[in-house]
What we know:
Elements: E1 6-12, E2 45-50, H1 57-61, E3 64-66, E4 86-91, E5 94-98, E6 104-107, E7 114-118, E8 149-156, E9 162-166, H2 172-179, E10 197-202, E11 208-213, E12 240-246, H3 256-270, H4 272-276, E13 279-284, H5 291-305, E14 311-313, H6 322-356
Parallel strand pairs: 1-3, 2-4, 9-11, 9-12, 12-13, 13-14
Antiparallel strand pairs: 1-8, 2-7, 5-6, 5-8, 10-11
Amino acid sequence: MKFIDEAKIEVIAGNGGNGCASFCREKFRPFGGPDGGDGGKGGSIFAVADRNINTLVDFRFSKLHKARDGESGRGADCYGKGADDILLRMPVGTLIVDHVSGENIADLTEHGQIELLAKGGEGGWGNIHFKTSTNRAPRQKGDGKEGERRELRLELKVLADVGLLGMPNAGKSTFISAVSNARPKIADYPFTTLHPNLGVVRVSHEKSFVIADIPGLIEGASEGAGLGHQFLRHLQRTGLLLHIVDLAPFETTVDPVKEAKALVKELKKYDESLVDKPRWLVLNKLDMVPEEERKKRVKDFIKRFAWKGPIFEISALNREGCEELVTAIYQHLETKRNSEQRAEETQMTEEARGIASIDPDDPRFKVME
């Protein structure tokens, strides 16, 4: 199935039913009074996160989603039936944005999460509600309200712990196939990866993390060169970026340092927060470099690139250095999770202390009798 990570849809909630103006006409009740019922509520439209769906392809070809209107009220105190709501199932990781205002409507990050997209209109009141001591026979009735109507843009951002970043043919697909269960297309020409690939990396039986491979970037991607920036959104949710560099390019005129700097420049043009994410440098294809030249080439690259962060030397083809890299990634992610958990526990403890410090005799907290 083709991977679809972006779609535009229109959602129209149902209108509320109109209220009824009616009067009781029963035998032996000459002044029965008003008995017009209310109109039913229009159907609303909700988004539901479903982990069993991994693409927005259904919304690429089904663009209009309209709920039914509520029924109008009738006499004899008969209220109109409310319309059923519509549930749109979307992949976990879908960002829903109002296409007109640019407002973020919802971010589906957990399975089963339900978010309102368009609210159905309320039903109008029947004349039974307008009866007063001075107006025994009201002929007023309320009209149903219109349901909300929105144009929405759906963007799927894959949920992964680690994201792979690099130029075309840097070896990202080979790396993800070497360390995970993903089996992307691998070939000796650029842009063999045309859509994101997810793989689960198992460090041990109970230790694992998710890694995402996106199509490669080239210089000028912000102007639409190559596949552009359209897949960089998938890296925004990751906790760690691996910048994979081809240390032994096939063409001798290609400078790995220049390519690496160009990629970082494109990253800044798209989103500054991506540059601030934890990023490790991974020098790939060491098997193509003679052993006596490896140290010199690596040292020269680090010096010219002015890199001060973590660096790993691997060969994804024969898996040299991959095991050490995977172990380091898991330890980094585990440390990050533990620190976030401790921060959350500390916050909860401080909130509990704040509640316990309230003086019950303080007059501000006494309930008036």
